[in-house]
Structure formats: C-alpha cells, structure tokens
Design brief:
The protein is of the alpha+beta class. Helices cover 41% and strands 19% of the residues. The protein is built from 18 helices and 18 strands. The strands form 5 sheets. It has a 6-stranded mixed β-sheet, with helices on both faces. Strands 11-13-9-14 form a 4-stranded antiparallel β-sheet, covered by helices on one side. The longest helix has 22 residues. The chain is globular and about 85 Å long.
Length: 532
C-alpha cells in the first residue's frame, strides 16, 4: 500500500510521502476501507458455497484428470480474487482519485498520471507496459509475458479518461474522492469514472493479477490497450491503430464498456448499430427577405426542408428512402425467442420517458426497434429568426442535422448517397442543397456460432448461475468497428455496468458486486478462451 501512496503522489507532482506523513496516509486508507474486508469475506463465502452446490465432490461425478486440474486452477484464481478484494478496491480508489478529464486541457497532466499509474500496475503483474504518446492524451500499450504459446492472443480495450464532473453542486460527495456507500442493501463505489470506465477496466486487470499470483502467468497471451480520449471522440485512436498494427494484432478483441441485463444477469452485446451523420443546408434567395413584401412569391427554405424531413418516414414508421433497407436482415429465431422471453416491460420503458406509444416500425417490439432495426432521426433543425419576439423574415437558408442508425449489412456510403438523392429530388426550382458529412461507420454483429461467444456464455453462466443474455445495442462503439475494419478482429463486448450507474451524470456509481464478480467473470472467460 505504501508503494501505491508514494507512486501516486509522485505521479501527480506531490512530494513522496515519508515518515509521519506516510503513516497518516496509510491510516486514512485503513479508515476509508473499514468494513470492506468483512464484505469481501462474506461474498467469498457465498461464492464458495455456490461452487460446492453446483460442483459435487469428485466421487459424485466423473471427470478426466486434465479437466479436474483446470477446474482446480480456476478455483484457486477465483479464491485469490476473493481474498484480495480489499486491496483491489484500494487500487481502484487510487485510479479514481486521478482527475483524468480528457476534454479539458487543464487536466492534461492528470491524464498522463492516469496512464503512468496503469502502466506501472501492469508492469508489476508481468506485462511489458509502455505509456505511448499521441497528438493528444497518451495510450497505454502492454503485452503479457510467459503465455506466448498458450492459446489465442486477445486484445483488451478500455479507457482511463472520464467526463467532467459538472455540475459539482449535484454531487453528494466530491467526485474525485471515491466512497463506498450502502443503498438499498447494496454496496457501491461512488466517484466520477467508476463505471465509465475505470471500474470496468480494473475488473480485467484484477483478473490478470490473480492468475499471475496463483500460476505465475496468464492462461493465454494478452495485449492491453488503454485509451485516454474516448470521451472526446478518440481523435488519436485511428492514427495509433494505423501506426501499431503489428503490436495490436490479435485473434480476438475484448471490450468492457457495456452493461449487464440487470444486477443478477450478465450480458454479452452481440450487435451494435452503425451510424451515418449528415448535415443538410437548403438555400433559396440570395438574402433574407421581408415576409410582407416577398411572401407568396419567394420560396421559403424552411418549408422545403420541412417537407424533405417529413417525407422520410411513412405512416407505418418505416424509412421511405429508396434502397434504405438493402442489407437489413431479419432477427435470428434464437435471438428473437430469447428477447421475447426477457423480463422487459415496454409500457414501463416508455412510461419512464413520459411516452406511451412506440414510434418505430409498426409490428415490431421495442427491443427489436432499438437494438436490431435501422432508423433515421432529425437531431436538430434551424433557420430564420429564433430570438426573442418576432421578426417577419423569409430566411435565405434552413439547416438540419440527421443521423441514421444502421444494422446488418447496410452500407454507410450508400445510405448517405440515397439520403442526398432523396432530398435533392424534393427541391423546387430556385432551391439547392449542400451536405456536410460528420462521419459514418457500419453495423457490427458477432456470429452466434462463434466459439469465443459460446465459451464466454458458459463462463458467465458458471459465475452468475444463469445464462448470459445476448443483447443488442442501439448505440455505436467506434473502437469495435475500427478493430474489425483495421485489424480484422471480432470483438466480445462484456461489461458489468447497470442502467442506473449514472454515467456522465453526478453521483456516478459502480456496484461492489459488479466489480467483484466482474473480476471473477473475466478470470473464467480467460480460462475458457485459453482452451480454444
């Protein structure tokens, strides 16, 4: 613990703690973590009882010697995670104290400190770890030692940067002074970045630590990439991937920036929607016009743009742009059946938003609409006078920002071009349109027959005592697309966040169970993947 105190203080530019000051820091740590060890022991005991229940004594079952040895090894690793939970939380708290806010230049040194802290931790558990500079905040790149020939190589991705904590007045405790609190009978860590993504990435680090502690090495080769700009759009990521292809090459990518289905049910995100971002500007007259002197004779670009946008959707909720559904596949029957069986209340989901009727394609459930169907949404529209009072003007231009969420094999370039042709076809004489692209990426899905997916499902079921939900995500995770497009890797998306973790909001939290069983889950997953 003293090493962590000294190292973290030095990284943040403070003098190293020595003598009485070091003792005071250590005392504060002991006070801050009072009660955690008891909680860890209780969880460990519950895990041991659960294991005994699901795994009868050797005389009651048949198993080959190699299988028994592997089972014994993973149980020793899991026990190490249980015994070390207090120390794992101490390490997490040190990382959470570093104010690695990537969007604010004032915290540049803090981002560097977070990267250096992580590299130091990885080096301590047997990785060759480096802090690699970029045009923005640095990357942490690390390669495991000692498991080069044991199974497939995996690349684990996480990000150490966090969102600004504002508004500060809404936090119940200081955002960079992590606290373990209890609410509703559940213990949770409250701090900025604990769920997005520091707590999540540390579950993997702690799983690796337990393997090295027990066996002296990892069960398979592991590369780790920690980024420091995810919360600002990852501007340095693509240049870094391009310049380090050989160092990042692996058989499978692992990412942790996702959620569980609920607090007791793990999930694997197997589908991500793609994204096309467009801005359209419709121009009419060469200047703004007086609506009394020119109204009726002069075309109004707002009216033209409104018609274009209104025509995009039909009465059945489908997108009416020709060719839009090219490459869209129907759900796999197994996935459809699983989603139908999930305890999901559509009325409550909509009611919590102040809504009552699903507005997507008619005849499709809410989960299918938000996870597996393509969409078009107008994200902003403006033109003319929008200030206080009134101004009788016919504007010279009107603008809108439009986003398309893509699924299946939809081609982002074709969707973009089809939208532009659709808009131009509705322009009257004396109007013209220009378009600005704000990015595009395709949808991604992991085949249900993927051996890695099957192994991960089994590992999660063994830990949580119930099958992992194969879920979709209505959003997009650009890094996953980059791994597939640039490095040719599929990605397994396994995270332990919850919907109520308040990421990007005041009082962000991460459940103690998510942290503890998340580390145990990654240990099981690594052991399972090593067998392939």
């Amino acid at each position: 613990m003293f090493e962590h105190v000294a190292r973290t203080q030095e990284l943040r530019g403070y003098p190293a703690a020595t003598g009485k000051r070091q003792a005071r820091l250590a005392a504060r740590e002991r006070i801050a973590f009072r009660g955690i060890l008891a909680s860890a022991e209780a969880v460990a005991a519950a895990n041991e009882e659960d294991y005994k229940r699901r795994n009868p004594p050797a005389g009651a079952r048949s198993a080959c010697a190699s299988g028994s040895e592997a089972l014994m090894a993973i149980e020793q690793v899991l026990s190490a995670i249980d015994r070390g939970l207090e120390q794992s939380l101490q390490r997490l708290f040190w990382l959470l104290r570093i104010k690695s806010i990537s969007t604010d230049p004032a915290f540049k040194d803090e981002c560097l400190a977070a990267a250096a802290w992580l590299a130091s931790e990885l080096d301590a558990i047997g990785f060759d770890a480096q802090v690699r500079p970029t045009a923005g905040h640095p990357m942490v790149l690390a390669h495991s030692r000692g498991a080069e020939n044991n199974g497939p190589r995996v690349l684990f991705y996480g990000h150490y940067d966090v969102q600004p904590p504002d508004p500060l007045e809404l936090w119940t405790t200081p955002p960079f002074e992590p606290r373990l609190v209890e609410s509703g009978g559940r213990k949770r860590v409250v701090a900025r970045g604990v769920a997005d993504d520091k707590g999540q990435l540390m579950t993997f680090v702690e799983a690796c630590r337990a393997f090295v502690t027990v066996e002296g090495k990892l069960p398979l080769p592991v590369t780790i990439l920690f980024e420091g700009e995810e919360e600002t759009g990852s501007p340095s990521l693509m240049p870094f991937l391009d310049a380090n292809r050989a160092a990042l090459k692996a058989d499978l990518a692992l990412a942790c920036d996702t959620d569980m289905w609920d607090a007791e049910t793990p999930a694997i995100t197997t589908m991500l929607r793609g994204l096309v971002l467009e801005e359209v500007i419709v121009r009419g007259a060469d200047r703004d016009l007086h609506s009394g002197l020119f109204g009726g004779a002069a075309i109004n670009p707002i009216r033209v743009l409104a018609r274009v946008l209104a025509d995009i959707h039909g009465a059945d909720g489908r997108v009416a742009i020709p060719g839009f559904y090219e490459g869209v596949r129907e759900l796999d029957p197994e996935i459809r059946a699983q989603w139908a069986a999930l305890p999901f209340d559509e009325k409550k989901f909509l009611g919590d938003l102040g809504l009552s009727v699903a507005a997507g394609e008619r005849g499709r459930g809410v989960l299918e609409q938000i996870w597996a169907r393509p969409t078009c949404d107008v994200n902003g529209i403006w033109g003319g006078y929008t200030g206080e009072g009134s101004k009788t003007v016919i504007p010279a231009r009107a603008s809108a920002k439009v986003s398309f969420r893509l699924v299946g094999e939809q081609d982002p370039a074709k969707v973009r071009d089809a939208f532009r042709a659709f808009a131009r076809a509705r322009l009257p004489a004396d109007c013209k349109a220009e378009f600005i692209s704000h990015g595009a990426s395709g949808a991604l899905s992991l085949p249900l027959a993927s051996p890695a997916l099957l192994q991960t499902r089994a590992a999660l079921a063994a830990e949580w005592g119930r099958p992992a939900v194969l879920k979709g995500s209505g959003g997009s995770i650009p890094i996953v697309g980059a791994f597939k497009r640039e490095l040719g890797m599929d990605s397994l998306l396994v995270g332990f966040g919850l919907d109520d973790d308040r990421i990007h909001s005041p009082n962000e939290k991460y459940e103690l169970t998510s942290f503890h069983k998340g580390a145990r889950s990654w240990a099981r997953i690594l052991a399972a993947l090593a067998k392939s």
